[in-house]
Amino acid sequence: MSVDIETQASTDPAAEDSSARRAPAVLARFAAPIGLQVLAFVVAIAVSLLLVAALGYDVGAVLAAVVDGAFGSAHAVSSSLTQAAPLVLTATAVWLAYQVGLFNVGGDGQLQVGGLAALVVALALGDLPGVLTIAVAVVAAVLGGAAWAAVAGLLRAYRGANEVISTIMLNFVAATAISLLIAGPLRSPSAKYTPRTDRVAADAQLGDAVPGIPLTFLVALALGVVTVVAVRRTSIGLRLRTIGLNREAATHAGLRVQAMQWQAFAVSGGLAGLAGGLVILGYRYYIAPGWVPAWGLLGIVIAFLALESPGLIPLWAVVLGIIGAAGPAIKGAASVPDAITTVMQGLPVVVVFLVGALARSGPGRRLHAALSRKPE
Amino acid sequence: MSAGQDGLDVRGVSKAYGSTLANQEIDLQVAPGTVHVLLGENGAGKSTLVNLINGREAPDAGEIRFAGALVAAPGHTRPNPAIATVHQDLALVPVMTGLENIALALRRRPDRALRRAATEIQDRLGTGVDLDRPVEELELPQRQRIELVKALVAQPRLLVLDEPTTFLPPAETGPFLELVRRLAADGLAVLMITHRLDEAQAVADSATVLRHGRVVARHAGPQLPSNAELAAQIVGTAVPEPTRPRAEFGPEVLRLAHVSAVESGRTVLDDVELSLRAGEILGLAGVDGNGQLELLEVIAGLRRCSGRIELHGEPVQHLPLRKRAGRGLHYVSGDRRRAGIVPTLTIAEHFEVVLGRAPRDLDALLRAADVRPPDPRVRADGLSGGNQQKLMMARAFQRSPAVLLVSYPTQGLDVLAAAQLRQVLIERADTGIAIVVASGDLDELLGICDAVAVMNGGRVAGIQRRPFDRDELSSWYTTRQELVA
């Protein structure tokens, strides 16, 4: 993928603007008009249901299970939003790094390191009052994720190492290191067969703020909003965007390009790390093999759907959160393999990308134009 | 001036891009054995016309024929193999040899037959470029010869030259124009595009002047009107060309001692010594790529160097660009798109990025700098090249520079905008700012500078102060001389 990015940037003489926005230029193609995104969502649902029907399952039962799983009760809403919370943060993380022209593919690794940091701190401080434990654990999660991302950010800023490659590799390192830790030093004495850690004490767990609305979602939403507003409305944000839009011009303007790039990348990792911390404190409470799905990758998907209108990040996070949370429900109610939910999460992007590609090659141009038109 | 059935015949051609009328009802004929010069400033529609003649694009109206055969008409293009074009930016693959490049362009193999054909043409042109050396090892004039051979091997009957002398040193221009004359004498029809009036005078049998996409004047040669008259036709009004009055200089503000720089093993700057006083304008001349840009980048802090750079008597060579800017040393690159503007940001944001916030009297400031439109909310990509350049200048001046470095400030600007920009530099120097300006246009430098240094192979081949001796300056472009101060 990185090869694509480089060649795209250097061989596209037609696009004056895209030459300025260099590294992840090709990714900007994901930035889809809102009409197209809605269409993508509808198509994704339709194709998924066709798939369900083709496999011989009861479409009605699946639909009912999804609706019930999403809206059936306060608990159902809460569990959807619980899944949406980390997505808001990982998507915001990718969006932020993109503003300085970098592509953070390391959300998964940063999230896991953040989760690990929160867990270790929460277990170590078990005797303290819950609120205090939570506060320290949250800070630890942010710092953990930030440190993990800073490795890639520093390598990129000062040594030119491609951050896509290094963050992917750091994802593997994080996942493997955590596997080793939970099988060894962090293994709970009570884990009989599969290795897992101890649980976070009950008073250090985050619950719902009001029934149906988990605290973790509110925290994630608040930080996502703060991040976007800071980038869009402050002077520092303007400098970050300048770096992403035209690195050379930023250098000539005297901005501390390298420092700002790695620092923004570290903050990006901090957001992903916080996602991991919230998962531990408000959802999983301990680490076992497979404790998190690929929320980092889903964050990339959301970030590029919402690239030009970051206000869509929470919306997409909630939608994908609902679909994700519906997995067990449809498995239980209609005995459909819950892998179908992963299909439903991935399809919108495929649709957006397909229509985008068609729009460049002719047949889809009119459709794309129609969907791009701003309502005025 | 009829081309008859044999030459190029452009009749009533119009072409629009969006709402921009790039060409409007253009008539133009080029007969075999003659050189026709197409004059006009940037954006006058010259390149559009070249693309139509090449059969790359179809006109909206009118038609283009060559030797009677239709080349382009609305909805129809048929590139004519008898038409060859040498583009301004040379289209050669650096790592391939001259012969391989020629073969690539013609979709032939670099075999003996091709070599014989190319050598024959070289003999005819009186050039002797080594066809077996990688193009990247050749000097620019030699590369251009390769381009020319490439075009001629296809045995064209019309040769289109798009600003062919842009990258040639002054000393090479004369011989090149003679070569063009010789090609015409052999029966070739030549259409040469240029904005240098002296060249037009030297080479043209006839000329057409374009302005805003329209033909505003036709001249049958061999005697064209005076340069002043041609310039007035090109621009539409007489261009007041600023000249540098005698100036009083302040104390020394910038000094370079033994400044050298290396880039991937190659010496790009070699023991440069310079001194600049407040209020002085120093020009960096020379064939492009001989260290002018590198020198400005070294002074600005964008590039490492050895040696010593003193600003107000204090060494700054170890400081990053940001800190040098803090001490009043600023650099405005002429490569606006790459290193100047951020297309999607507004004018106000361009100021905010470096100043922390936009100046309160920004509207007045923009009007004073003649940025059009003077609206802080306009995005940079909504400005013309000249206005983008004025914006970058205005931003630099807003930071009260003691020393201003400028590279190729008028590159890509039309005649009027370029003259305005030169005027700005002169006026600012009079307020005590020391200015170093690199330009590929020697005449531009002679007009505004107090001293001109010629760069050659990373060295300062020579420095002259007013009054300038143009011939001596030109001689430094190609030969190496000891420092003359």
Automatic annotation (TrEMBL), chain A:
Pfam families: BPD_transp_2. GO terms for molecular function: transmembrane transporter activity. InterPro entries: ABC_transp_permease. One of its GO terms (cellular component) is plasma membrane. Its main location: membrane. The chain crosses the membrane at residues 30-57, 77-98, 110-126, 132-155, 167-186, 213-231, 264-285, 291-307, 314-333, 339-359. It comes from the Bacteria. Signal peptide: none annotated. Keywords: Cell membrane, Membrane, Transmembrane, Transmembrane helix. It is found in: Cell membrane. It is a multi-pass membrane protein. This is Nucleoside ABC transporter membrane protein.
